[in-house]
Amino acid sequence: MKTIILVAHPDEKGSATQAFLKTSSAALEGATWRNIDEQYAAHRIDVAAEQALLRSFDRVILQFPMYWYSSPASLKQYMDDVFTRNYVVANHALKNKDLGIVLTIGDSLAEFSAGGAEHFTISELMRPFEAFANKAGMTYLKPFVIAQFGYQDENQKQRLLVDYLQYLSAKMPLSFANRESWLVAQLEKMAADLPSDDQQSLNLVIETIKNQQDQLEDLKLNVKMIRDQEE
């Protein structure tokens, strides 16, 4: 899985949230971090080069803080410049790729729910991106929302790290089985770099997880057989 993270943030270096996410993604093989604002600040963006770059990735992540219920202007500018109709519709350049949204907000997520103070859900507010994915023939992923990062404790941040890396690289939909498969793959990569004694210990953990996966599949099969017999 090759993933590009297109970050739209006017002050990425001053953002604790983005710093955390950038450090997290750096440990992930196949992930590329690209700051849109820096591209525009350095020079007029090379549309052809950006289009060629995007073709080489399986998953495109648009990552940004919420600005008035949408994205920062730099992301809109990037989409207008790079995602031309010829590129997206005529040439189907993004077809069958995944499109994910990583959204950071300063309010509680509960505010963006039925009956909440904001009156609209995150999914509703992100519908323009979903519409774009549909037009481009992409698979739209449920937005990954990070709310009030500054108030999270260390345990919450550790959980966020794992969830974020899975959103970037795990097979979708993010079912329990796909989460476990992703975890096994990451542990196997870690084991390869460990001393032999530590490898053995970690391999035992990996085998335990794999056995649990097999047991779960057997259980699913048995349930299906019972249902088929009842019908």
Automatic annotation (TrEMBL):
Domain Flavodoxin-like fold span(s) in chain numbering: 1-165
Signal peptide range equals: none
**Coiled-coil portions:** 202-229
GO terms for MF: electron transfer activity; FMN binding; NAD(P)H dehydrogenase (quinone) activity
Read off the Gene3D superfamilies from this record: 3.40.50.360
Q: Does the keyword Protein transport apply?
A: no
InterPro entries the record matches:
Flavodoxin_fold, Flavoprotein-like_sf, KefG/KefF
| Pfam families given in the database record | Flavodoxin_2 (PF02525)
Q: Output this protein's name.
A: Flavodoxin-like protein
Keyword check for Membrane, yes or no: no
Q: Which UniProt keywords apply?
A: Coiled coil, Oxidoreductase
